Amino acid sequence: MIYGRSLFHIVASLTIFHLSGAAKKGTEKQATSETQKSVQCGTWTKHAEGGIFTSPNYPGKYPPDRECVYIIEAAPRQCIELYFDEKYSIEPSWECKFDHIEVRDGPFGFSPIIGRFCGQQNPPVIKSSGRFLWIKFFADGELESMGFSARYNFTPDPDFKDLGVLKPLPDLLTLLGL
């Protein structure tokens, strides 16, 4: 029954996340590749084939005072691989206290942290342990830079390698009529 309660808490959290308007924060549109629609500064993404997202205005300078949260969702029994383009520049600072990208292993801002990145060297390939990654791009009020472009794709979760891949679940928010 613990699994049922955990699922309930996730569904309740997602519903609250949507109702609070957090999914609509930062509505500036940005250009992406031809294979994907334009995305917002921060979005919940679950494209079955993977995708690309960027900091605002990339490859131009990102604007000051910006916080963008991207949540990537894979299908059940899949993990996420995240790659940052070599054309990468986030204001450098000690321990990335100012402008930075923060990546967490799960769907929430309190999920286990994978890393916080800034500077001129792009982060290493990042692999999730499950089907969600939470990525926050934060820019303070000073010293903007080029930003980043990130690509993600999905791989089979090794914990389920003998069971195959399930069909994706329907969109929860659509089912709830939100």
TrEMBL record:
Transmembrane segments: none annotated. One of its GO terms (cellular component) is postsynaptic density. Residues 41-155 form the CUB domain. Keywords: Disulfide bond, Repeat, Signal. GO terms for molecular function: ionotropic glutamate receptor binding. Disulfide bonds join 41-68. It comes from the Eukaryota. Residues 1-22 form the signal peptide. One of its GO terms (biological process) is positive regulation of excitatory postsynaptic potential. It holds the Pfam family CUB. It comes from Enhydra lutris kenyoni. The keyword Signal applies. This is Neuropilin and tolloid-like protein 1 isoform X3.
